[in-house]
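Design a sequence for this backbone.
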């Protein structure tokens, strides 16, 4: 008998200020032989576009047991809401896909953007408080 099911996919945190993001998969094997779930974890942004795929391999779930494994997602840059979808197969059969959502707001780029906005607004205010813009009057 071959029966494997994906119990859950979860993000370690709901909000990430720093990278990497961690995704934990949990599966149960109720079969009589070990299972080797394989596939990918698709990472989609808020627009639904696939921005990355994490391969799922080298994961064995013994018979009559549950086992969890954690994968690390290390993007170059990410900002906003992301959805991780586990698309796995075991024994040649597709497991029902599962999803987990999480938010990414990298602290350093966000702080730099906020600082830049404040600096530009301060410089504009300073410029207009010190100087007066007048048009030249024509002499007759």
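Sequence:
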């Amino acid at each position: 008998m071959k029966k494997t099911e994906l119990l859950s996919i979860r993000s370690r945190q709901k909000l990430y200020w720093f990278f990497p993001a961690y995704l934990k998969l949990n599966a149960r094997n109720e079969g009589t032989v070990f299972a080797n779930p394989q596939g990918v974890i698709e990472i989609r942004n808020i627009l639904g576009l696939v921005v990355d795929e994490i391969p799922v391999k080298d994961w064995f779930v013994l018979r009559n047991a549950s086992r969890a494994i954690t994968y690390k997602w290390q993007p170059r840059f990410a900002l906003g809401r992301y959805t991780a979808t586990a698309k796995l197969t075991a024994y040649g059969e597709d497991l029902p896909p599962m999803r987990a959502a999480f938010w990414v707001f990298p602290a350093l780029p966000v702080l730099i953007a906020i600082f830049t906005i404040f600096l530009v607004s301060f410089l504009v205010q300073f410029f207009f408080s010190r100087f007066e813009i007048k048009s030249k009057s024509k002499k007759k």
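The radius of gyration is 26 Å.
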